[in-house]
Write a structure and sequence with these properties.
The protein is an alpha+beta fold. The protein is built from 3 helices and 4 strands; from the N terminus they run ααβββαβ.
């Protein structure tokens, strides 16, 4: 219980605006030798899914950092497809391990 309180305090103390979060992601994507990236699914110009990932320094491990699908598009296999795409890309560069985490009730 104490760990959960500390976690919540940290999360509440580091809230960022959407602009700041977006700016950080853009800066990361523009790094020429970054070790991961972001994927976005668009339906008629509406972003409906995002997912991000990174690789270990030796490209042996893929870390699935986060993903989400907007509510009205859930249950259509979009999230599953994004996981498959990230896994297939990882396999193509020789990754041997994939690591992810999930929040109960959302995955």
């Amino acid at each position: 219980m104490k760990n959960q309180r500390v976690s919540m305090q940290i999360k509440l103390s580091v809230r960022r605006t959407e602009e700041t979060a977006f700016s950080e992601r853009v800066k990361y994507i523009e790094i020429p030798d970054r070790r991961g990236g972001y994927m976005v699914v668009v339906d008629n110009e509406l972003p409906i899914d995002y997912s991000n990932y990174r690789y270990s320094h030796d490209d042996r491990v893929l870390y699935l950092n986060g993903a989400g699908v907007i509510p009205r598009y859930r249950g259509k296999g979009i999230y599953r497809e994004m996981v498959a795409r990230r896994l297939n890309e990882a396999i193509s560069i020789g990754c041997q391990i994939a690591v992810t985490q999930a929040k109960k009730g959302t995955s």
